[in-house]
Structure formats: C-alpha cells, structure tokens
C-alpha cells in the first residue's frame, strides 16, 4: 500500500508491505509535526492486529525528522517491546541519523544499514 501524506511543512510518502510475518514501512520525505500523526495511526493499526509484532521502518528516504517524528518512533519501539516484538530501523543516514546521534537514541533502537539487512537478521 502506498500513501502520500501532505503536511503543512512537507510531504511524506509511505509504502507498507509484508515480508512474511514482518511489517515493513518505507518512508520518504519529511517526518515531522505535520506528518507524524498519520505514521502513528499506521503503526497502531498494525499493533492492534495482535500476535508478536515485528516491524522494519526503512528511513533511507527520510530527509528530515523532528521531535514529533522521534516520539512516534520511540513510542513504536516501546509498544512493540511490550508485546514481545521488535522494531528495526533501516537506512538511517544524513541529518536524521545526526538527530539520533545527538539525542543519544541510537542506543535505544536496533539500527541496520538497509531494509534487506534488517529482514535477514530477524
């Protein structure tokens, strides 16, 4: 499924797919206050399906992330962990990676170089 979220400050393209029992969410664009609520809804919808959730969020196309985007990812990581599941971030680079490093969030997340690497190591 592909979806374009048009926010006040930018656009975020979202593609969701299944890789076996793993939900993959691929993001491209701006993950900020104006687009993060929709991402949160997508993640929560998946969590409501039950079972042991496994998720990869491919961040390779994300050009910008703000504190709202970070909070969505932190909440998702916590929620999956509480259900015995696992969240992996893939392709985190550039300015978004710098934000994670500055906020010391890299220690909280399982970060892989690519979507393929994330899927291989589940």
Keywords:
single chain, globular
Percentage beta strand: 35-45%
Q: In sequence order, what are the helices and strands, one letter per element?
A: EEEHEHEHEH
Net shape: globular
Largest sheet: 6 strands, mixed
Quaternary arrangement of the chains shown?
Answer: single chain
Count the strands? 6
Radius of gyration: 13 Å
Intertermini distance: 23 Å
Tell me the helix content: 25-40%
Structural class: alpha/beta
- Going across the major beta sheet, what is the strand order? 1-2-3-4-5-6
Q: Point out poorly predicted stretches.
A: none
Mean of residue pLDDT values: 94
Distinct helical segment count: 4
How would you describe this protein?
The protein has 122 residues and is of the alpha/beta class. The chain contains four helices and six strands, in the order βββαβαβαβα. Strands 1-2-3-4-5-6 form a six-stranded mixed β-sheet. A hairpin with a 4-residue loop joins strand 1 (2-6) and strand 2. Helix 1 runs parallel beside helix 2 (67-82).
In short:
The protein is an alpha/beta fold. It has helices at residues 36-47, 67-82, 94-102, 115-120, and strands at 2-6, 11-19, 22-31, 54-65, 86-90, 110-112. Strands 1-2-3-4-5-6 form a 6-stranded mixed beta sheet.
Write the layout of secondary structure elements.
Layout lengths: L1 E5 L4 E9 L2 E10 L4 H12 L6 E12 L1 H16 L3 E5 L3 H9 L7 E3 L2 H6 L2
Parallel strand pairs: 3-4, 4-5, 5-6
Antiparallel strand pairs: 1-2, 2-3
Helix pairs in contact: 1-2
């Amino acid at each position: 499924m592909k979806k374009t979220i048009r926010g006040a400050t930018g656009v975020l393209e979202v593609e969701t797919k299944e890789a076996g029992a793993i939900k993959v969410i691929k993001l491209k664009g701006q993950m900020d206050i104006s687009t993060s609520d929709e991402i949160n809804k997508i993640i929560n919808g998946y969590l409501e399906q039950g079972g042991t959730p496994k998720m990869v969020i491919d961040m390779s196309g994300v050009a910008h992330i703000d504190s709202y985007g970070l909070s969505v990812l932190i909440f998702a990581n916590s929620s999956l962990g509480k259900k015995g599941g696992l969240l992996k971030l893939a392709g985190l680079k550039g300015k978004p990676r710098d934000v994670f490093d500055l906020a010391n969030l890299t220690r909280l997340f399982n970060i892989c170089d690519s979507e393929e690497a994330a899927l291989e190591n589940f």
